[in-house]
Amino acid sequence: MKEDFKSILDRLFILVKIQDDNESTARLESALYSAGRPLSIEELIRASGTESRTKTLNLLEKLMNKAKTTFKAIEIVTLPDGSYVFQLYYILSSDQHFDVQ
Fold it and tell me: Which of 8, 10, 24, 95 is within CB 3.0–4.6 Å of 48 for a Cys-Cys bond?
């Protein structure tokens, strides 16, 4: 039987309070990357292990800024419903195009 992401997330990220920002950030990045879909702030709080909405939002903001300065083709965005997603991002100039075959 195929499990949904919430079930997997619940098993992987047992509610354990994480004190280390680097570990919490790595857990957020891992959750966003592996989900394959937008994640709610509640799911990200659980994944980060911070048990804090404010702390998780601060870590997300830092992670989003890091992604903007580090990556050229991927980004973390906040969707209109308040969820977050890791997605491809690429702007083509008017004289560039991709040939899809």
Answer: 24
Distance CA 94, CA 17 (A): 49
What confidence tens digit (pLDDT) does each residue in 25-79 have? Answer: 999 999 999 998 999 999 999 999 998 999 999 999 999 999 989 988 889 999 9
Taking a C-beta distance cutoff of 8 angstroms, is the pair 49, 18 a contact? yes
Of 58, 62, 60, 66, residue with least CA distance to 85? 60
Architecture in CATH of 5-88:
Orthogonal Bundle (1.10)
Rounded to two decimals, what is the model's pTM? 0.71
Q: What residue ranges do the domains of the chain occupy? A: 5-88
Classify 95 as helix, strand or coil: coil
